[in-house]
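Lab manual, section 2.4: Encoding a predicted structure.

Procedure: take the sequence of the chain (407 residues), apply the prediction step described in section 2.3, and record the output as structure tokens. A sample record is shown.
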Amino acid sequence: MTDATPASLAARVRDDEIRFHELEEHADADTAAAARRRLVSETADADVDVLGEYAFDAADAHGSNIENMIGAVQVPLGVAGPVSIDGGALDGERYLPLATTEGALVASINRGCSVVNDAGGATARVTKSGMTRAPVFRVGDVAEAEALVAWVRDNEAALREAAESTTSHGELLDVTPYVVGNNVYLRFRYDTKDAMGMNMATIATREACDVIEAETDAALVALSGNLCSDKKPAAINAVEGRGRSVSADVEVPREVVEERLHTTPEAITEINTRKNLVGSAKAGGLGFNAHVANAVAAMFLATGQDEAQVVEGANAITTAEATPEGDLYLSVSLASLEVGTVGGGTKLPTQAAGLDVLGVRGGGDPAGSNGDALAEAIAVGALAGELSLLAALGSRHLSSAHADLGR
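Recorded output:
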């Protein structure tokens, strides 16, 4: 194994002696990745050497974060702020790490952070939390469906015991049934502490499903019945929440709006109503906001979150109103922000550094507090981004800003 080289490994794959995905069984992870780069380069006729420049231990990433690794893609990382945050779990000034290739994004959020600071800072709170998994069961008819629903309600303690036997951290909060003909969906919701918790919820739910099948006539069809709902636009997440539901707000004095943003509270309020609320409704949108996905995606990449869950993370509503005193009240509420500070991509060194910038890496004390703090930071980043973009639209500076900043 120690004598293997990228060239010799690549040759063995070409000769069908070993399989492409088995290279780590014959060499260390870095050598295996280099061998795959050789093979991919030959097949694609592409120079992929730059992908071999990375700052993490390939052996740590292999299996837990990636398969068939050939290297890494680098995304520029910037910071906005520092911004003052009054959160339930995060307090004080923080830089917000943002990984993106979109010119003007960091500058826009940074401007929003500066205005938020001039207004005395932003307030943020996590209002609900719980990671969900919703298996679907087949029953004979609606009478059997009703019987299963009744059984689940009478035996939630047994389901909790089974589910929690698989984890030392997760707690089953509740099970909500939904019936569609001879289909019964059971939406399990867990407190997963500082972990994002999707794998935890899946394994725990599997154990609970075994109890249901053993004690009832229901047959498990799929461990995920899409009522969870993971990595897909879904109204249930907008209404019931998934992961963490978090809100942030700020009240900006009129003079700050006029002097710093070159518009008025009334103009921002009207734009928000006509664009984010009415326009989104007409479009059939689930997110009633300007560009919350930008802040969510950039902070997800910077802190090692599951990037596909931006779909749910951007499920947000922005509100704006001119106060009786003539100032601007602005809020953003993210219904289903699925984040964690342990596990998954948070273990990679550059992503761990992003969490360190916020001061939220690892398990919190009490458990779950670091996950809450990360959610609050992302909500404030989204708030700053909404404020900046709405103001740019109000002052009609949007196109010139993007032109000046190279997009």
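Check your result against the sample. Residues 243 and 338 are 4 Å apart (CA to CA).
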